Amino acid sequence: MEVSEFILMGFPGIQSWQHWLAIPLALLFLVAIVANITLLITFYTDPNLHEPMYYFLAMLAMVDLGLCNTVTPKLLGILWFDAKTISSTACFAQIYFVHCLLGMESGIFLVMAYDRYVAICNPLRYFYIITNSFVVKAVVFSLIRNAVLVLPVPVLAARLSYCSIRRIDHSFCANLAVVSLACEDITINSIYQQTVAWSFLGSDLVLITISYCFILQSVLKLKVEGAAMKALSTCSSHLILILFFYTILVVLAITHKSRKKIPSDIPILLNVLHLLVPPSLNPIVYGVRTKEIKQGILKVFKKTTGFSSKN
Q1: Which residues pair with 6 in a beta bridge?
Q2: CA-to-CA distance for 68 and 58, rounded, in angstroms?
Q3: With contact defined as beta carbons under 8 Å apart, do 272 and 50 qualify?
Q4: Can you give the residue ranges of the G-protein coupled receptors family 1 profile domain (predicted)?
Q5: What DSSP assignment string belongs to 151-214?
Q6: What is the pTM for the complete model shown?
Q7: Residue 84: helix, strand or coil by DSSP?
Q8: Which helix (H) or strand (E) holds 7?
Q9: Which of 100, 89, 99, 94 is nearest to 75 (CA)?
Q10: CATH 1.20.1070.10 is right for the domain spanning 5-301
Q11: Please, which of 29, 42, 181, 197 could form a disulfide with 296 given CB 3.0 to 4.6 Å?
C-alpha cells in the first residue's frame, strides 16, 4: 500500500504535557543556530583563523546547523501547534539527512583527531601534512562516503509496502520507527542500517581512540615541565565533544536493546537530544576554551557594536 503521509506522535507516553518540552528544546535550537552562525562569521572575517584546524571547525558548524534544522522545526511544530502530519517524501528525506549528517559529524571528529595527532606527534611536518589540499580531500571524502552509502537507507524504506497504520511513535522520522509500520519483512532494512551505522561510527571511534593513544604516548615522553599539560590542553575541547557525541550513541544503543524494560519516551528524548545538544555545545566549548576563537568572536562583536553605534 502506498502512503502519502505519516503522523508523528512526538512523545507518545507524555502526550498531555509534551508541549512543555518545547521550551527547553527551542532554547537549545536557538543557542545552536546563534552559536554556530557566530562561529562561521568569526572564521570568515578573521584572517588569523584561516588555517586547517579552523576549517574543520567551520565544517563541523555547518554540519551542526544542518543537523538541528533537519529535525527541530518540525518537532517544535508538533509540540506547539499539534502539526503531526508529514509527507512521505519529507519523511524519507529526513531519514536520509539525519543519517548522512551524523556520519559526517563523526568523520569530521576523526579528521580533527588526526590533525591533533600530527600536531603533537609530528609537529615539524604538520604544515606539510595538514595543508589546504588535505582539508579539501578530507571533506570531500567524508561527504561522498556518507552521501552515497547512506542513500540506500531511505530508498529501501520507500520501497516497502505500508499498512493502514501511519502513526509513527517518534518525534521525527527515525528509520526503524518508520519501517516498523511496513506490511512486509524489514530484516534487510535493519541489517543495512546497523551495518552502515556501526561500520562508519564504530571505525571512526576506533581510529580516534588509536590517535589519542599515540598522542598520550607522545605526551608522556615530554620532559619539559608543563609541556605535557600544554599539549593535552590543545586536545581537551575535542575530547570533551567526542566523549559526549559517542557516549550518547552508546546509551542510545543500550536503551534500544532494552526498550521493553524502559519507557519508550526515554530513547526518543535521547535521540532528539543527540541531534540538538552537540550542535549547541560544540561552538560553545571551542569558543570558550580556544583563545584564538574567543578573540575572533570579540572582534566580531566589537565591529558589530561599533557599526551599530555609528548608525
Answers
A1: 86
A2: 16
A3: no
A4: 35-286
A5: THHHHHHHTS-B-S--EESSSS--HHHHHTTBSS--HHHHHHHHHHHIIIIIHHHHHHHHHHHH
A6: 0.91
A7: coil
A8: strand 5-8
A9: 94
A10: yes
A11: 42
